[in-house]
């Protein structure tokens, strides 16, 4: 009898063990972590109970910063040994002692203090609880209140992701929910161990022409902007060149009728990343298992170029130059003394005022776009239309594409002074700055692509032409020389109508000019016009030599081509060739105005073409 009882007992124990085994095998999360709280349950400080997300990443419960007797309800990373809080519920209203209860009351989550006073509440307007309401800590760290039978995120009654504290988690959105009018932003802790609202905020500002994130210091009700992200350009914020092509994080910026928001997600869920605003900085940290500490991925402000308004209007900051502030080409420092003493905040002013009708654009690449306070955006038009639109508005100072993907789409244009720009080593985007045509010279690397290409192409063609003529003539002369050598008398006169003395210091252009259709120019004149061939006037360089821009005393602008001394050609041959080129002149070619020979220097002087006039030549 006893044996039978024993067998019953054993099989009973065995089956219970089996049931447990099955539960553990098939519902590991359920058996290990509690991630929900029903309306009949509560969390109290004294019970030490917490909620843990099903994947064990986040934990929700009460905590007490070291040294203080104040209790807060919050969410932290469970696996990271360095205690890191992602969210705090009652940051500005702590529990004053270790008596506190979190529970569901009607359709609200409430945090009650010692005398059942409400310390914190989700403040939802009361509705009928038709179905039972539960609270759940989701795997992404979102603490939500929902009907127990509706897991869909659109049906959440309340979620902590809508009320960020100082940390942006993956899948959490920062920015405007246009349906509720709520702007979700980050606010720093007051200090390292005080979660109450601090004075630094990272906030999307949509009052600008294009939304930008701004790091704000709100000390004593004074709002001081510290750093701006630059507008989103389809791939990144132009002022935060996050490492592109990095496959671990995917950034998402959405702008539609429902929201203007930024978020990111991780492609490998074992790696954590968070964006946190603290004193004076916004930081992105990553945690790679099994590390015990967070790794700083990037931080703002990063360098000397980051503080706002370091370089004044029409100047940009560049880490690779000294001083860091640079006037845009076509602009000069407003206050030369301050500028020279490396105080760039007064910025730069135009060399030549805009003329409204005769203006063009200078392209600057890798730029963080200027402050968008005076910017307007039109997402429907392309770059070409954008340029036309900017040109047609005399107040327009600059334009750029709104979305750099697929060759550029959308148009941003500025009507005010351009402020707060920087040149990035990588990232950033093209910015087209309006200049008077007089300040735009050809061949500058920063100039607009199309014009640049046309000009280098036409220079290339004319040089080819000149060289082939020279080579041809040289060959002809060689042949004649050979003949002349055979017949030894009167060779010089036979070959040249003009015999040029070899040892002259320079050609005044007075004696022989009648015979030539081309004026000879004094070397001094050329030197003066190009300011001693200064680098500043240099507009191009090639195998043939260097091209300078110059201005004659009478104001005429010239392009001076200083043939390299590699050329072994003799003086009279050169003159012959020049005459030939002069005869070849055509309306659509850049006109050769003259030449100059001086002690081995051979110089060609062309009419200087503004890019606009060349454009109009080529495109009517
Ligand atoms: C809660 O934790 C504290 C400290 O770890 C401990 O002193 C206390 O006994 C715990 N309470 C319960 C109910 O487990
Ligand atoms: C708070 O509420 C609980 C449950 O409703 C009750 O048992 C307790 O006596 C209340 N405490 C005080 C101080 O009112
Ligand atoms: C809820 O409303 C009360 C009173 O209007 C307010 O003091 C409190 O800050 C609100 N709590 C939250 C979490 O918004
Ligand atoms: C970005 O977020 C929006 C909603 O906020 C979503 O519809 C879209 O699919 C997301 N895009 C990517 C690439 O994740
Ligand atoms: C994700 O990261 C973890 C930790 O570094 C690594 O062990 C794992 O192989 C990664 N998974 C994938 C799919 O790359
Ligand atoms: C240009 O700016 C001036 C002064 O700010 C303003 O009066 C004028 O209306 C503007 N013109 C256009 C076309 O916006």
TrEMBL record:
Catalytic reaction equation(s): L-seryl-[protein] + ATP = O-phospho-L-seryl-[protein] + ADP + H(+); L-threonyl-[protein] + ATP = O-phospho-L-threonyl-[protein] + ADP + H(+)
Transmembrane segments: 12-34, 454-475
Domain of life according to the entry: Eukaryota
Uppermost EC category: transferase
Chain ranges of the Protein kinase domain: 533-620
UniProt keywords, alphabetically: ATP-binding, Disulfide bond, Glycoprotein, Kinase, Membrane, Nucleotide-binding, Self-incompatibility, Serine/threonine-protein kinase, Signal, Transferase, Transmembrane, Transmembrane helix
Membrane topology: Single-pass type I membrane protein
PANTHER family: BULB-TYPE LECTIN DOMAIN-CONTAINING PROTEIN (PTHR32444), INACTIVE G-TYPE LECTIN S-RECEPTOR-LIKE SERINE_THREONINE-PROTEIN KINASE SRK-RELATED (PTHR32444:SF251)
Name this protein carries in UniProt: non-specific serine/threonine protein kinase
This protein's encoding gene: LOC108815861
